[in-house]
Amino acid sequence: MNKLTDTFKLNNGYEIPCVGFGTWQIPNDELCVGSVVKAVECGYRHIDTAAVYGNEKRVGEAIKNCGVKREELFITSKVWNSERGYETTLAAFEKTMNDLCLDYLDLYLIHWPASAYRFKNWEEINLNTWRAMTELYKAGRIKAIGVSNFLPHHLDALMKTEVKPMVNQIEYHPGQIQEHTVDYCNKNGITVEAWSPLGTGKMLKNEVLVKISEKYNVSVAQLCIRFCLQNGILPLPKSVTPSRIKENADVFSFEISKEDMVKINSMEYFAGSGLDPDTEDF
Ligand code: A2P
User: Fold this and answer.
1) How many structural domains does the chain have?
2) Model confidence over 119-132: pLDDT tens digits?
3) 220 occurs within a structural domain
4) Cβ distance 260 to 227 under 8 Å?
5) In this structure, what CATH number is given to the domain that contains residue 259?
6) Whose C-alpha lies nearest to ligand 1, atom 10?
7) Helix axes of 242-249 and 220-230: crossing angle, nearest 10 degrees
8) Is the pLDDT of residue 281 over 90?
9) Do the Cβ atoms of 162 and 146 come closer than 8 Å?
10) Is the pLDDT of residue 38 over 80?
11) Which residues are designated catalytic?
12) Using one digit for the tens of pLDDT, what is the confidence trace for 251-267?
């Protein structure tokens, strides 16, 4: 990968720009419009949102006003947990499309798996949601479909269906590289995306990372984003600060050495969201 518009090829052949602009925790106001427009100005062509972020209307406004054609942008959204199931997912999709003011979506994801912790029929629920996603995909309303926060045992049932997931978006940053899930996805042709590649900022003061970043004369944020790319993972950094939005796009002029990759890949867990797809109760 040499620039923001270079792509990963999904298992259906559709291409996805290699760094996405994350919008989790950006409020539904002018700041959201300004941040997304700034991101596009800085060269991002891939915007990641979700119904539960509550900012789809403002993301949609930014898409309309950013000066780049819709076809040149890659837009992702996600169906929230309260809308799992067949009919509810279809309805949630329509609401998302209305809020974003779009007539097709590039990627639609199941935001979190229904898990055994909360539901006896968790597998059936996930399959029903997936059936709705598959139908929308086959009708051409969505270019690619996938999941988020799915562990291998959540993915197993979906892998036996007609259309297999193209993406799994998981929490991924130094100290939390989810090897088991990533291996499973690699073996099954599922592209892995990283939410919170900076650990929502918790990576930035880590001494090991600071020391390595200094060697390359980059920030820890840039190091973390580059680290994802060199592991074949698609990062989705979020920022509302113009200088950081620009900085996070500048990750193609240095390369982390093999030794440093090993060092970062072997870091123990030290910070993260603490959310576990098997026990989350929201
Ligand atoms: P802000 O949005 O106020 O600029 P993640 O992408 O892992 O969720 O991390 C997002 C957090 O990291 C936000 O708090 C964001 O702050 C902060 N952040 C993003 N990019 C940078 C950067 N280049 N330097 C420092 N902090 C950053």
Assistant:
1) 1
2) 999 999 999 999 99
3) yes
4) no
5) 3.20.20.100
6) 200
7) 40
8) no
9) no
10) yes
11) 53
12) 999 999 999 999 999 99
Q: Any long-range contacts for 175-181 (C-beta under 8 Å, 24+ apart)?
A: 175/199, 175/203, 175/267, 175/268, 175/269, 175/270, 175/271, 175/272, 176/269, 176/272, 177/231, 177/265, 180/151, 180/152, 181/150, 181/151, 181/152
Q: Is residue 230 part of a domain?
A: yes
Q: Locate tokens 């915007």: which residue?
A: 47
Is residue 186 within 8 Å of residue 31, measured between CB atoms? Answer: no
Which residues, other chains included, contact 139 with Cβ-Cβ below 8 Å and sequence gap of 6+?
Answer: none
User: Which residues touch 69 (CB under 8 Å, ≥6 apart)?
Assistant: none
Ligand 1 closest atom vs CA 35: 2
Cα 129 to averaged position of ligand 1 atoms, centre (Å): 32
Model confidence at 53, pLDDT cuts 50, 70, 90, reads very high
With the most atoms of ligand 1 within 8 angstroms of its CB, the residue from 36, 238, 273 to mutate is 238
Q: Which domain, by its residues, includes 186? A: 9-265
Q: Measured in angstroms, how far is the CA atom of residue 196 from the centroid of ligand 1?
A: 9
CA distance 271 to 263: 17
The pTM score is 0.98
Ligand 1 pocket at CB < 6 A: 22, 196-201, 204, 219, 221, 237-241, 244, 247-248
CA of 248 to the centre of ligand 1 (A): 9
**Nearest CA owner, ligand 1 atom 9:** 200
Best CA proximity match to 33, nearest among 18, 16, 47, 17: 47
Please report whether residue 270 resides in a domain. no
CA distance 186 to 196: 20
Q: Quick check: is 138 in a domain?
A: yes
Structure tokens at 272: 């993260």
Tell me how far apart the alpha carbons of residues 31 and 28 are, in angstroms, rounded to a whole number.
Answer: 8
Residue closest to 63 by CA, chosen among 25, 10, 21, 125: 21
Q: Are 107 and 145 in contact (CB under 8 A)?
A: yes
